[in-house]
Amino acid sequence: MLLAVVQLRRELAPAAESASQQPPALELATAALELAETVDDPALLAAAHGELGAEHAAAGNLDAALEHTRRAVLIAQEVGLGEHQYRFEWQLGRVLRQAKRPDDALLAYESAVATLDRTTLAAATSRRGFRRDVLPLYEEYADLMLAATRGRTGSDATASLRTLQRNLEQLHIAEVRNYFENQCSVPIVFDRPPDIDRAVVIYPMLFADRLELLVSSGDDLTQITTPVSDAELTSIARLLRDAIERGDSGSAYLPHAQRLYAWLIEPLHDLLDRVDPSTLVFVPDGPLRTIPLAVLHDGDHFLIEDYVVATTPGLSLIGTVNVEPVSRVLVNGIVAPTRGFAGLPFVAEELRSVARTFPSRVYVDDEFVTATLEREIVAGGYSVVHMATHAQFESDYRRSFLLAHDDVITMDQLEDVMGSQRFTDRPVDLLVLSACQTAAGDERAALGLAGVAVKAGARSALASLWSVNDESTARLIEEFYRQLAAESGKAAALRGAQLLLLNDERYAHPVYWAPFLMIGDWR
After folding, report:
1. Strand partners of residue 199
2. Distance between CA atoms of 221 and 212, rounded to whole angstroms?
3. Of 38, 158, 364, 467, which has the fewest Cβ atoms less than 10 A away?
């Protein structure tokens, strides 16, 4: 639509030998509007008003910018141009912000987000389009809301922060749907799950000049600002991931882990001391998705030594069904080399340990084929599906896969295979992927890992940021299931298993225990 106006403006421009001879942008936009008014095309007319409003804003003519942008919004509303209406409402918010009218700007941004949520654009747009046409809207809206609530207390401030939390949840839903190109069944409203009052939920928000933390504890919401730039935090997160994953001897990772702790956890000390939470739940953003937050360090202890740690793409993606004890486990694994992939010799003991702890059906190597997996899941009765096999998560979800003996399982195939249990009274509670790999620093791939449980229809996933083909993984998995059998929560069971390795001098380096994340419903 807007491209049509730009093309119209170009056609109005006379042929010239140099750009300096072209009519000014404002003049072209005015001429484009005059021509659009002669054509019976409301969509084109709305685009022309929007383009002229944008040019007036760029020239500092804010009254004219507001007039034409509002006209574009009105026309888009009248003829149902939702996917363009939100852009005009967003533009209106930007102009009002430029005019130093933050309260009115907030209303315009609120309308833009609401309109966007009613469309499929956020999910269907390309990765590049999402970063250009969707993400900045939410970021600017959050920035305005944070500015409006900074330093305020009382019920009005809490209500504003609750609105911000709801919009962050909507953004994270949009990101997951966008990663899977809208081929993913996720809720579209924020519904806070029950029984999380002893968990503190942390939403980090990265801005160019600062880090903002929105912290939810019970019915309280707290806003905390940390003066570290997006660029600096991103750099340290990458250095931390690289230092741990390389597995270098010594503690080269510690300075990075301590800096991140100082930015993300230290500002919460008073709140955490007061609340004494059972679990810290992170809803990570950007580069924080690519690192194991359990490894943050206060100078004496890792974060996992003090708290149960979990991550989730959003509380909205957890659901409200009560957690049931583990019943049966469907166990699948690859031990021998297959289809050009190296063997995973320590998987054999991993699978035996699971089968010793819970009633299980075990399929290894040539028994682990897609048809058998589908048959067993359709038959139902499994609360945990365990896959000890090569798994790769890429920026493009269509290139992400799990390896079975007979074929690779794409994310869409995983959804088809496991989706039959999604809407039953006993959906799969936990998907375990013990040999996953995501590229260091690849935020998009990490988003795919974070969303795999949602895609598969499971309530949670235990997955690794990088694969550890070592006896340590078998020990960690064995201890995890042992703690589950003792009726620990899933994230608490993972913590116990990680501490087991941390306290073993052979496996104390975080390369062995840190990559494993509990994603989704941690209870």
Report:
1. 279
2. 13
3. 38
Question: Tokens 């020990």 identify what position?
Answer: 475
What is the secondary structure of 52-112 as a DSSP string?
HHHHHHHHT-HHHHHHHHHHHHHHHHHHT-HHHHHHHHHHHHHHHHHTT-HHHHHHHHHHH
Enter the pTM of the model.
0.92
Number of H helices and E strands in the chain, helices first, is 21, 15
Burial class (CB within 10 angstroms; exposed 0-12, middle 13-18, buried 19+) of 304: buried
User: Which phi and psi angles does 265 have, rounded to 5°?
Assistant: -110, -40
For residue range 296-336, list pLDDT tens digits in order: 999 999 999 999 999 999 998 886 667 788 999 999 999 99
Which residues are bridge partners to 200 per DSSP? 217, 280
- Centroid of chain to Cα 492: 22
CB burial of 57-82 (b: ≥16 within 10 Å; e: otherwise) equals beeeebebbbebbbbbbebbbeeebe
Angle at 285 between CA 282 and CA 286, to 5 degrees: 140
CA distance 175 to 147: 24
Look at residues 69, 262, 195, 177 and name the one whose alpha carbon lies nearest to residue 523.
Answer: 195
Helix (H/G/I), strand (E/B), else coil: 267: helix
- Give the distance, in angstroms, between the CA of residue 145 and the centroid of all CA atoms in the same chain: 21
